[in-house]
Structure formats: C-alpha cells, structure tokens
Amino acid sequence: MPSHRLPGLVAALLLACVALPAPAQGVLDRIKSGGRLVLAHRESSIPFSYLDAQGRPVGYAMDLCLRLAEVIRKKAGVRELGIDYLPVKASDRLAAIEQGRADLECGSTTNNAERREKVAFTVPHFIAGARLLVRANNPATRLEDLSGKTVVSTRGTTPLKVVDQLNRQHLMKLNLSEASDHQQALKQVLDGQAEAFVMDDVLLYGLIASSPSPADLKVVGRYLTTEPLAIMLPKGDTALKQVVDEEMKRLITSREIHPIYERWFMRPIPPANAALNLPMSYLLRDFWKYPTDQVPF
C-alpha cells in the first residue's frame, strides 16, 4: 500500500470507531443510577397477568416478577426501587422487551427458539398445552371436527401459528380468525362468530372461571402444543439474567413458588372470586426437579 494513503486510512478507522454506538446500559446499572424497573403485563391472561376490578395488574406471573424486582433492588444496592407498569398485548409484548420499553414481561409467553432470537427467557413458571374452548352445546371434541368452521386465536401467539400449520398441512378447511387479545377471542365464541378459540388450556380455564356464565363454555380436544411459559427479559443483559435465573431457581428448589402457585391456580381469585382448581401437572413437577432456562423447543 502506498505510504501516502496511510494518513487517510488511519483517519477513516478513527472515524469509524467514533461512529460505533455505545453499548446499551444494563438494567442493573440503570437502577444503580436511580432508574426505575419497568414490568410489562397483560390485561386478560388469567391467572398469569391481568387487571383486577380496580384496574391493577395482578396474577401468578406478576407475583413472581415482584419477587424478582426485590432481588434486583438488592443486587443494585438501592434502598428503594420504583416500578412502572406497561400494558402489552400478545402482538407487541416481544417488541416491548426487544426495544427496551420494558425490563421484564410478566405474562404467559412461550419460550421457543424463534423468540429466543430476539429476547431471553428465565426458568419456565408453567407448562401448558393448547386446546379448544367451545360453547357447552358444541359437539366438537377435536380440531378435525371443525372443518369448514371459523376458529379464532390470539394474534402473535404460538397456538395461532400451530393451527395455521395444521390447517395447511392437513387441508382441514378451517377459517382462521385473529383476535387482538384473549377477551376478544372469547367474545367471538360467545357471539357465535367462531366455533372455537384455540389457546393454552390454562388461559382458557381462567377465562371460563371469570366469565359471567361458566357453564356455557368448556375446554375440549387433545393437546396441540407443549408450551413452557416463562418471563421474558432483554437479550444480552447477562447481569440481569443471572440475577433473575438464580432467584427463579431458588424459588423452585426451596418450594417457595408452591404457595404462589396454589394462590392463583387452586384458590378463588379476582375478579369473579372463582377457583380454577388446576393442580400442578406432572410435566411441571418433573421439569422443576432440575430447573433450567434451557427448553427443547
């Protein structure tokens, strides 16, 4: 290379270095500097994350997130930790974490390989499976019984993708409808606009328990998916993830998570003061024997 080009090359390299974006500040560092923790929550993912009669976010995942917030506060070494709450839907929850608008997503989100390209997950707090919610007088017992009928699921969810794949692969002739949230999907079934709502069974039971007429609805069909549900957090924030993972593992191995589970799945919960009566599944019990954030999906 001619020597007269060296000064220009050096200048270009220096300019490129200056133009490099500064690394994003981690959540712990931001809190040490007086920042607030932002918890994303759902509005109708009963019993994981939803609004009570006073419009406050409550639920199983919310309780876990508040436990995590306390260990984050201690790790950051601050006396008090301000918490902000950000409502999200199924369609924008990943973006809220990926874009830095929220630090933890406290809901019912499935940890899968596609999502791990954009966000991180901690140890699963529940393992669910997608089934069908139909009206009590509907004779359908499986997805194949709904050929030619309208089936609804919530936009941006794993069950919607699975049903779409099954519909195309097996030529089921289903008419798929996308709802913006779980309540809208439930309304489509109640109003007769859809024959079935496909979603994680635990969420379906929660919607039934909180509906004005629980006897008018039922959950049917075999499991279409296996869904390890976990709290989302930013990808690449290793310090935050270590704190969150360690606390989730501690809650599980110490069994402190069990009364939290029982509160939301076995006892009456708001707003209808009805109990889901869902004992812990053998899948979740087995998974929690060796709690890890690594899932085979």
UniProtKB/TrEMBL annotation:
InterPro entries reported for this sequence: Bact_solute-bind_prot3, Solute-binding_3/MltF_N
Pfam families to which the protein is assigned, alphabetical: SBP_bac_3 (PF00497)
SMART domains in UniProt: PBPb
PROSITE patterns recorded: PROKAR_LIPOPROTEIN (PS51257)
Record domain Solute-binding protein family 3/N-terminal: where: 36-268
Keywords of this entry: Signal, Transport
Matching SUPFAM superfamilies: Periplasmic binding protein-like II
Superkingdom of the source species: Bacteria
Coiled coil: none
Keyword Transport carried by entry: yes
Cleavable signal peptide: 1-24
UniProt key word Cell division: no
Family classification: Belongs to the bacterial solute-binding protein 3 family.
Protein name according to UniProt: Amino acid ABC transporter substrate-binding protein
Species for this entry: Curvibacter cyanobacteriorum
